[in-house]
Amino acid sequence: MDAFTLSSLRAIHRRILNWYRKNQRDLPWRRTRDPYRIWISEIMLQQTRVAAVIPYYERFLDRFPDIHALAAAEEHDLLAAWAGLGYYSRARNLQKAARKSLDLGGFPKDYPTLRALPGVGDYTAAAIASIAFNLPHAVLDGNVIRLLSRLTGESGNVDSTVVRTRLRAVADSLIDPRHPGEFNQGLMELGATVCLSKQPQCLLCPLARDCRARQSGRQYELPVKSARPGPLEVEIQLLVIEKAGRILAWKRPAESRRLAGFWELPEPAQLPRARVESRVTGFRHTIVNTNYSYNVFRASLVRIPSKFQWLSKDKLHEFPLSTAAKKALACLEK
């Protein structure tokens, strides 16, 4: 797309801001300019849907209301508060970043220092810098990439570095220096609610008159993306072994590549001497590109191996349980 003229830029700024101010969703992190709260929301929103984040966001802030509380938290408390959101390295990086910020004398207020925090990439640093500190740094998340590819008629694969670089230049040229935070949020909101992946709502879009994809009738074809492989299918059996109001479980070691520090229900291969008694239920759980099918069985065991522990059913909320363990135990209560 040719460079935007000053008049066209001003028109785009005006239309995006007016649309956003009228149509933005009422989300809890939009009711604050506190950098700490905005940072927490941006980390939680990485690869997680807005609807799923809201209850976690509010509970997390009740538990860790400021950067000092987060930095001082015990790991099991931190993981318990995050349990269910997935991608648990995000929670550990949050605490590392909180401690680093305190070492720096407080939460960073500029893009380079924000970008250097653990778990903070280009997009997250730009979002925090613009929303919390009104600094002119353009965001480029999945929604904005889709919107800009249609706006400019980008026919290249948006997964390629070359095309991402072009779209980054477009985003940088578009940013409203007077209202960068609102403008960034406007673009993201427009991508999330109007410029949809499969059914773009062009008649509702404030940029419809500028959109190259719509002008050429290609709004359903763009953006061009790499084909994704089909999902993997994995079957897992879990055992529920109860005794005197307690549940048998095991804790993943700190060096575990996945869910380090989380508690799990045992699988039959871990307890070959267990007596499987009856199937309780089954459920499915999806992580990224893998579909897990779980079957839950009641079982009994005479001798408990050393790596397993009894957890009180009344205190399970105090432990960081994996999502699979939570779902399996929830089925017992139905």
How helical, in percent, are the residues?
Answer: 40-55%
CATH superfamily of the largest domain: Hypothetical protein, domain 2
Oligomerization state: single chain
Q: Any idea of the CATH class of the largest domain? A: Mainly Alpha
CATH topology of the largest domain: Endonuclease III, domain 1
Query: Radius of gyration, rounded?
Result: 24 Å
- Supply the number of helical segments: 13
Structural class: alpha+beta
**Which percent band covers the strand fraction?**
5-15%
The count of strands amounts to 7
Give the domain tally. Answer: 2
Major beta-sheet overview? 4 strands, antiparallel
What key attributes describe this structure?
about 325 residues, four-stranded antiparallel beta sheet, alpha+beta, globular, Endonuclease III, domain 1, Nucleoside Triphosphate Pyrophosphohydrolase, 13 helices, three-stranded mixed beta sheet
Would you mind describing this structure in some detail?
- With 334 residues, the protein is an alpha+beta fold.
- It has helices spanning 6-23, 35-44, 50-63, 67-72, 75-82, 89-104, 111-115, 122-133, 142-152, 161-174, 180-193, 212-215, 323-332, and strands at residues 232-240, 242-243, 246-251, 263-264, 275-287, 290-300, 308-312.
- The model has no long low-confidence stretch (mean pLDDT 94).
- The longest helix has 18 residues, at 6-23.
- The protein has 2 domains: 6-215, Orthogonal Bundle (Endonuclease III, domain 1); 232-332, Nucleoside Triphosphate Pyrophosphohydrolase.
- The protein is globular.
- The N and C termini lie far apart (57 Å).
- The strands form 2 sheets. Strands 2, 3, 4 and 7 form a 4-stranded antiparallel beta sheet that branches. Strands 1-6-5 form a 3-stranded mixed beta sheet, covered by helices on one side.
- It contains 13 helices and 7 strands.
